[in-house]
Amino acid sequence: MQPSKRAQLAVFITVLVDLLGFGIVIPLLPIYAKTLAAHPSGWMVWVNHTLGLQTPGAFWAGTAFVSFSVMQFLATPVLGRLSDLVGRRPVLWVSLMGTALGYLIMALTGRFEWVLAARVLDGITGGNISVAQAAMADLTPPEERSKVMGLIGAAFGLGFVLGPFLGGTLAGSSLGKHFAVEHGWTLPFLVAGGLSLLASLLVIAWLPETLSVETRLAARQQESRGHALLVALKRPGMAQLLAIALLAMTGFAMMEGTFSLLVNQRFNFGPTEVGYLFGCFGILIVIYQGGLVRIVAKRLPERFALLAGLVLMAVFLPFLPSAPWKWPFLLVMIPLAWGSGMNNTATSALASQLTPAEDQGSLFGVLNAVSGIGRILGPGLGTFVFARWGYSASYGVAAAVVSGALLLAFTLPRRTGLVEEGS
């Protein structure tokens, strides 16, 4: 195997193992946080009374989620820029170790405050996907970056397919119950921490440094140019791409944040059925990112792939609240998952083409941070509209937000990229 291909495989496996841990934790975290919040500390009781919370457990579960997203938003550009300065390998290793420590804290604690601290720590160090994306970009010519970004997306999909099933199995196992009853430990979180630790070891053993010494020196010489976001915005077309990433993620996160509520209200589905449906979404993402993206990349320029993905999302989001179970509803999920995949990979590829090699880490840090804002805004906006006006309105607003991204996509220049400028 060629060294570059082996390095790409190392990045893929590293991301996959890390996201398996993430997939284990995310479905279980709300229940875990809600259980701990049932025995609140004094300051939590004060917050409950001050806000007049009727179901405080749900509030504190949401706090655990948002704390991670906010800290990841703040830290991801910093990690990306740091990887430009010192290299991808050490930053990726440190971030994985921080994630492993955060999971370990959650596994062993019985206090919500420590869960919150663990989520903050994981958010600060958990921006490693941007570093992995930058490593992939280092290893790949600009015209092939849509394909390799699909590998990162496939790792996401596999993590979200396998992780929840593994977490549920571990929680219900005899060993998991024994740990919980006898020691107060949470086995799925222990395993998630072990997987992140394994991923950090894979970085040391398999991943060479992908950023050349010359590129790192160039990045250090330009370190004083300002915040990575301001530097990115100076490039023609980048403001539109970042706004597209924000709006598209906000609309899609509105769907993700309300999907369980939707199928529960429409079809009376419980956690098991919801888990299977999320697993179906993950499988669809893997099919696209692991295979179809190569076909799309060969036949469609990134700009048209971006437009097509946004059209699929905007058109089919309003169908979820009305499509009858079973096959009509399941079929609607296909264009939503693949449309999101087309949009994400094309946005990453276009942004990467606009950015010189010494700034790839900071670029993906900014891009992931902007998407992180969408992951914060989307669920909050989606659940508010859902609660205030019903599930149909929630998906109508989500489609409108994605349509805003589509309108912006039409303003992108027809020829983008540093490579094209010299062609």
Task: Describe what this molecule looks like in 3D.
- The protein is mostly helical.
- The protein has 2 domains: 1-221, Growth Hormone, Chain: A, CATH 1.20.1250; 226-412, Growth Hormone, Chain: A.
- The chain has 18 helices and no strands.
- Helix 3 (56-86) packs parallel to helix 6.
Summary?
This protein is an all-alpha fold.
Enumerate the spans where pLDDT stays under 50 for 5 or more consecutive residues: 416-423
Q: How many beta-strand segments?
A: 0
**CATH evolutionary superfamily of the largest domain:** MFS general substrate transporter like domains
User: Taking all residues together, what is the mean pLDDT?
Assistant: 78
Q: Summarize the helix and strand pattern as letters.
A: HHHHHHHHHHHHHHHHHH
Q: CATH first level of the largest domain: which class? A: Mainly Alpha
Percent range of helical residues: over 70%
Q: Give me the number of helical elements.
A: 18
* Radius of gyration (Å): 21 Å
* Biggest sheet details: none
What's the end-to-end separation, in Å?
A: 31 Å
Fraction of residues in β-strands = under 5%
Please state the second-level CATH architecture of the largest domain.
Up-down Bundle
Q: What structural class results from the helix and strand content? A: mainly alpha
SSE blueprint and pairings:
Blueprint (H helix, E strand, L loop, with lengths): L2 H35 L4 H10 L4 H31 L1 H21 L3 H14 L2 H11 L6 H28 L1 H10 L3 H20 L6 H9 L6 H6 L4 H30 L3 H29 L2 H15 L10 H27 L6 H30 L1 H19 L8 H4 L2
Helix pairs in contact: 1-3, 1-6, 1-7, 1-9, 3-4, 3-5, 3-6, 3-16, 4-5, 4-6, 4-9, 6-7, 6-16, 7-13, 7-15, 12-15, 12-16, 12-17, 13-15, 14-15, 14-17, 16-17
